[in-house]
Amino acid sequence: MDARLLPLAFGLLALGGCLARVVTVPPGPLIRVEGQSVSIRCDVNDYSGPSEQDFEWQISSVANGAKTKIISTFDASYSHPSYSKRVASGDISVVRLSDNEVELKIAEVKPQDAGFYLCQTPSTDSVYSGNYEAQVQLIVIPNTLTVTPQTLPAEVLEGNDITLSCNVTRTLTFPTYLSVTWSVTSGTTSEEILTFGPQGDAAAGAKFARRYTDGSVRLVPGKNGLFELVISRVMTSDAGTYKCSGAEWTHENDSWIKIVESTKEIGTTKVLPTGQSLSVIASSSPPSSTSLLLSPGNTLTLVCSVSVDNLPALALEVTWLANDREIITMERNGVVVISNTSSTVAPGRRGEASMERTAAGEYRLGVRGVSGEDGGEYVCRVRAFIDKGGKSTGGGGRWHMAAEKKSSPVVVKVTQIKPNFTLSLKPVQNPQMTGEPTELACDVTNIVHLPVGGRLGVTWEHTPLPGNDPQAAQTIGSLDGSGNLLPGPMYTERLKSSVMSLSRVQPNTFRLQILKTQDIDMGLYVCAVSAWTLNSQGDMVNSVEYRSSALTVRWDAKRPSLNVVAKRIREASAGGSTFEMSCSVTTQNLADPGYSVLIQSQESLESSVRTIMTLSPDNVVQHGGATDPNRRDNLVLTKFGAAEFRFRLAGVQLIDRGFYWCDITAWTKQQPGQTWTKATSSESNKVRIDFQENGPSFSIAIQSDDTSVYPSKTAKMKCSLGVSGSSPKTDDLAYEVRWFFTRLRGGQTTTQVASIDRYGVVKTETRNSSSEISVVRTDTHNYLLNIFGTQDSDSGEYYCVATPWYLSASTGAWTQAGELTTSRVFLTVQFAVWDSLKLPLLYGASASIGVGLFSLVLGLVCAQCCCRNTSHIPRSRSKLSDMEMD
């Protein structure tokens, strides 16, 4: 053996020698209760052999130590006859938890099952080492656990306490421990309230954890196994069926094991809501009818009487309301809070109202110096709260509103003399057409009984004419007694932008002005004037309001009209010259419009319309989709006057011939900064560009050297152009050439494969095949397309399209001639059969000849080496011998 392998071999032997089988069972003794289930685990570690181990269980009697076979994981007949029936019935079973761990289970343990349980593992190790069995003692004690609850009352008032009493005892023969658990079931949901023991500690359920922390759920241990759980200030959600569970525990291997448990029902309790007994009555003091009449300056006194079962357990919040607005509140801690609303919401009550608690459940409201605004319906609202913090904490600050109730209203009337006046609404400026200003005046006369310091306010309303939406009256805006402007929801923007304004031109005269009257402003206008007076607290309050007669504002709405005339300013007589056109606009019934212009064209009256350029009302120019990007510098569209627009096209070409006109739309704005609104639109007459260019004539042809090529070869196609007529010089002539291809397989879609512009710039398109394409200009009139490394995907039809450009002798500008298209050339990429077969045939023939020669040589060698000559033995003359030899 190699000297370097010796240390490794000794290391492996040493490691193998350290392994020793270990069989483990729980430390004992195990204390269990008669009639309960028992589970004993057993595992084996540090063994060799197969991963799945077998186990055998035996029991040794405490009295004589005799061992009896119980059950095995591999031998079905292993059990002793005294245990075979229990094993067959499943009362005793063994469950495999993993390859090296099992669990012995006894469904109902009996007193005779007490003893020492031995777990054995048959050896599968190559070397006998370690322990192959382990035992644990099982002690079976009688079931002496008793749980005796005390019955709960069937009903309890919300906010009261309930006590859950439960007596849990057992006979102490071995060191066991007790625990008690209370739970409640409401509907289909069961919640654990509290568990006490077995270590002497308490743990509350998730729903009652906070209430246990703040003391509203508390445990009161008693003597002789009596345990009481007190739930303070119960709520309606605490209704349900309460149960008590007692359990007996044993402490094994640093953990607690429950060995028996018993659950008994304490009773079903219904929590009566506070709202069922809560009664709230509001009355005057001294008592009178439900209607109270006072004079200005008197004192209003009302009493709120509250009665409810279990009043001491509740905290009350009492609020007085007048016309559904809060006046004053006494909070549950006795603090009085006066409403902080403005006089426009709850006028005449700040600082005057007071409230005090005169007796248990009795609250008195006082309002000194009443005025007309203090009249209305007075209601007492009571909210009953329960402190969820519990008694032990003195109120934890967590309050639950148990009930809320309002009293019947007490009607309070205050006699007063209201101001009186007369209104007249008349037009100052009446519009005759859309866009003209409108001004209306609302005059207030014959004012009486308006006290000193009183002011007038106004509200303007507009109702559209019949047939317009909406028909309901809309509030334009109002000025209150302090002069504050309150715009209506539909007129906010117009009032903020000053297109519409409300003003007080004199103390008793109000104006409505519209700078630019629109059609939607037609309709009926009404001004409503209100008298604002000072109450006892110095606040302005609305005491009375009068409305004027409706005033109709309307005019004959005439539809706006637009007329556009186009005329030629500069004629395009030849290619390369400049064309200029003017469009003049005339309007009717339009005030200060803006215009948007579309320059459109078509090749003939039957062809499609193209948009050349556009001009927005804000004078923003954009090019249409039909405009060649390379010619945008030749196009100009400008506003030449207030109602005139000019379009100029420089360097006209043959493709520019056709009809040109203006499509103009008039737009209006109600006010600066707003968006444009379309009024009307119209098209001009059509101006034609029609010139004859006596330039050269062009022809085109395509030819290919070979229309059938093999793969990886080069295919060539030539596109030849001819010129006749007044042929220009070579330097005055250029071509744009594009090559197109329709694939033989994969669809009939035609794609552009390459192009060369008139400046000689070549562009090839991205292809899916591995072949490459180039375009070469061989001379002025010939262009060659090369396809290098042809593939099968290159089969198909090819053709070229050319656009000639020449320098016009008459104008000196480059002119574009008509587009030319060749016929189609079909290219086929053949499949090379011999090239694909010659190598396989050559290899096959060579292999056949080699195998034949090898077989021939092998036969000759075997004939020389394996065969030998034998001597001739003559036949006997006896016929019998000859037959035998045969």
Automatic annotation (TrEMBL):
Quick one: a GO cellular component term?
Answer: membrane
Region forming the signal peptide: 1-20
Q: Which UniProt keywords apply?
A: Disulfide bond, Immunoglobulin domain, Membrane, Repeat, Signal, Transmembrane, Transmembrane helix
- Protein species of origin: Channa striata (Snakehead murrel)
Question: What Gene3D superfamilies does the record point to?
Answer: Immunoglobulins (2.60.40.10)
Entry annotated with the keyword Metal-binding:
no
Where is the protein found, in the record's own terms?
Membrane
Q: Name one Pfam family in it.
A: ig
Q: Which residues form the Ig-like domain?
A: 20-137, 142-244, 287-382, 419-552, 696-821
Recorded protein name is: Ig-like domain-containing protein
- Broad class of the protein's primary localization: membrane
Ranges annotated as spanning the membrane: 841-867
Recorded topology in the membrane: Single-pass membrane protein
